[in-house]
Amino acid sequence: MKTSKIKEFIRQGEGISVEFKECKNSLSKDVFETVCSFLNRLGGILLLGVNNHGRITGIDRNCIEQIKKDFATTVNNPQKITPAFYLTIEEIQISGRTILYIYIPESSQVHRCNGRIYDRNEDGDFDITDNSYLVTELYVQKQTTYSENKVYPFVKITDLRKDLIARARKLAGNQKPNHPWLEMNDRELLKSAQLYLKDYQSGKQGFTLAGVLLLGKDNVILSILPHFRTDAILRRENLDRYDDRDDIRTNLIESYDRLMAFTAKHLPDKFYLEKDHRINLRDHIFREVAGNILIHREYLNPFPAKFIIEKNRVYTENSNKPHGHGLIDPANFSPFPKNPVIARFFKEIGRADELGSGVKNLFKYGMDYAGAEPQLIEGDIFKTIIPLSVRTTPQVSDQAILQATQQVTPQVTQQVEGDKISRVLAFCVKPKTRGEIQELLGLRDREHFRSEILNPLIKKGLLALTIPDKPNSPKQKYYSVAASL
Predict the structure, then answer these.
(1) Whole-structure pTM value
(2) Whose C-alpha in 58, 112, 395, 462 is 20 to 30 A from the C-alpha of 471?
(3) How many domains does the chain have?
């Protein structure tokens, strides 16, 4: 979180989504009441080390690590916050003082702190436990806002796959050897994962849409959602239809497996070292992409999710309830869980990271994989664009450049002399901006450069754009297609 944005929160003061706690040497008892109320209402920002008047008092340097540890332990303790909810703390330095920043998203569940239900208004946190009208209203709001909580009272545990429940238990145990699911029977596990709830409008209890999607038998899923589908498509040669396809209509756990298998079948795993260890760069990127279209998706919308591998990019689409519109800036965004129960289940079984960290990893590894930033576009349809075949090793074959030069038609050759073609293509082994290419050739006239050199090379397919959907983007760069093959 940028310091300037924290200063702006402090300047505006406390409100329905911002709370200050001094906590100079230890956590105050009402910190977790605020956490509970933010989870139950609209989410919010909690700043530790700032007093009620907005003065930065800071956290005692010798107490920072203990406060962070105490917070993480308590917020994950179901005896304190029920259901437990994982949150992270970020240290921020302002004017030589340390404050702790905690982003708390809105939850799809109703949470309790020490057995009490807290809600939030402009005046702070208030206990609504004994007000049956407000409690019922809160439950109804959660179930209508988050479709994953829709209760199906006639779905029985026999409509779920016992083998998938066992697999989820094993995967969770692999993530944490003492995971509580290991000691639970199937019904206890499902309730612990918030996949079995009470509908406060009808008074009926049952398995939720999230439970059916995660663990249901295929015929049960398609009976509830006939439109449910994730379409994995390879479209490189046959652009009108496809070269390969997997029409995925099964539970989310095996849907994830099939998306990853489709990726492994059609995309290369490039050599990559991180701290002297080789990692699977492809899987690090596309586990986030696959997880995103399964976790952050509005399943009541009949729009089918798409995962399309093309020559120069991977492109995904899924229906969405947007909390903003346009390009997501990884350095300045607040993650919002679209299906928190499904997201938390995926995290428990090792199929997803903490909320927000997945986006950061996608941008980090996306640059290493392709040399260009991915694009995440928020809207009614959420879109992800991952560039492909942009990054190459510096030792590009001179022969590849020469062959590419020879592919140019006589007309283009008249426009761009052969030596310039070779120089540009060799220079663009790694993506370059228009200005950098222009400087290489010693040309000052931008329009002449575009019309006589850049555009002919793009038209012929010798140069490609790192952001093909936005040719006029100020972040646009160009790379040698021959070098990336």
Answers:
(1) 0.63
(2) 395
(3) 4
Statement to judge: residues 215 and 245 lie in one domain: no
**Torsion sign (Cα): 162, 168, 171, 175:** negative
Lowest mean per-residue pLDDT among 139-148, 417-426, 444-453:
417-426
**Could you report the per-residue pLDDT of 337-381, keeping only the tens digit for each?**
688 889 889 988 988 876 556 777 788 787 778 777 888 888 889
pLDDT for residue 224: 95
> What's the whole-number mean pLDDT along residues 29-56?
89
Structural domain for 51, as ranges: 3-129
- How far apart are the C-alpha atoms of 382 and 393, rounded to whole Å? 32
Neighbour tally for 430: CB within 10 Å? 16
User: What is the per-residue pLDDT across 94-142, written as a single tens digit (0 to 9) for each?
Assistant: 888 899 998 888 887 889 999 999 999 877 899 999 998 898 888 888 8
Two tokens at 302? 């009949």
* Domain boundary pick from 224, 246, 268: 224
Most confident option among 20-34, 78-92, 240-254, 411-425: 240-254
Q: Are residues 183 and 211 in the same domain?
A: yes
Would residue 260 count as lying in a domain?
Answer: yes
* Beta-sheet strand order (sheet of 112-113): 81-82, 112-113, 116-121, 124-127
Residue 432, strand partner residues: 478
| Alpha-carbon separation of residue 287 from 31, 59, 256, 291, 437 (angstroms) | 35, 37, 8, 6, 35
Residue 171, domain member (yes or no): yes
**How far is 156 from 321, CA to CA, in rounded Å?**
29
d(CA 76, CA 85): 6
**Are 234 and 370 contained in the same domain?**
yes
CA 249, distance to chain mean position in Å, is: 22
Give, to the nearest 10 degrees, the angle between helix 281-295 and helix 357-370: 140
Contact 417, 409 (CB under 8 A): no
Task: Extract the tokens encoding 430.
Answer: 């790694």
Based on the domain organization, do 47 and 161 belong to the same domain? no
* 83 exposure class (CB count in 10 Å sphere: 0-12, 13-18, 19+): middle
Is the Cβ–Cβ distance between 28 and 46 less than 8 Å? no
Contacts for 183 with CB less than 8 Å, ≥ 6 apart: none
The DSSP result for 64-128, as a single string, is HHHHHHHHHHHHT-TTTEES------EEEEETTEEEEEEEEPPPSS--EETTEEEEEETTEEEE-
Q: What pLDDT is stored for residue 475 in this prediction? A: 85
Q: How far apart are CA 400 and CA 48, in angstroms?
A: 58
48 has a pLDDT exceeding 70: yes
In a domain, 136, yes or no: no
pLDDT at residue 478 tops 50: yes
Say which CATH number the domain at 38 has.
3.30.950.30
141: left (phi over 0), alpha (psi -120 to 50) or beta: alpha
